[in-house]
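>> received
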Amino acid sequence: MAPLKAHPSSPMAMFKESQTAGMDSAMQTLECHKAAERAFQLTCTHCGKQHNVALRGCSRCKAARYCDEKCQLADYKARHKRECAHFVHPPMTATFLTRPVAEERYASQPAFAHTHRDGMGFWVGISGDIRCDLQYLVDAMDPLETAERRERLEREGPHVQELFRLHRAGKRTLLPLRVLVQNRRKDNARVLVCGARAQVVSYPYAVNKLMPGLAENDNFERFTYGRDNFLAIGVAYDPFDHRPRVLVTHINGTTVRVLHSRLTSRDAHMIHARAS
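>> returned
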């Protein structure tokens, strides 16, 4: 018989226990996604044959793998030439997995929007739960830092309470997004991506539904185009850390531990970021 588990002794202990359980679940999901990425690397996109070693793939899109040149040429003529040029599929990576895994019926992180321009591809999905649950402004973007951040804010005095009120930091108001940017330019030119200036533009019918959820200090602008009203909502500003809520998490599939103000790698063709 398993021993009884004691209940948390305080709200902070309860929060930390919940956070630990959430992180364990997230790690299990990531391991599952890594396994799916490894399976993709062993499977030919054209004929479906599985191998014991990772296959070579399209060097430009990173979204297709092939047994040999014969399969690659056949797939290129049949569909890949068009798909690669039009950014039909994002690169296959465990950190931005838009395809169903194992027995899943649907992808856990589907991309609900994508576009491309001047050799750059952009895919946008929900960060976190597929149910699109809103998050708190008071929480850190990195879940591992949330407990420390909350404890720090509790010690900082009355002015923090005023920021809580103005920005509704204790309410679920943020929709976290996951964005993947890929450089497929044939000239290998560098491209500067200003993630903090990204905006989501609403449909006209949604403006009146969105306005009640916005606070006075939120980053938004209402405008008219033709006869219709639109709402442009920008990346949330963090009043506690005094910076936009944008976090670069991976570059070319490698986890970014420390984010510097300047990226110097010539090989940074794929950037994965989160924004609120």
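>> The first helix runs from residue 11 to 41.
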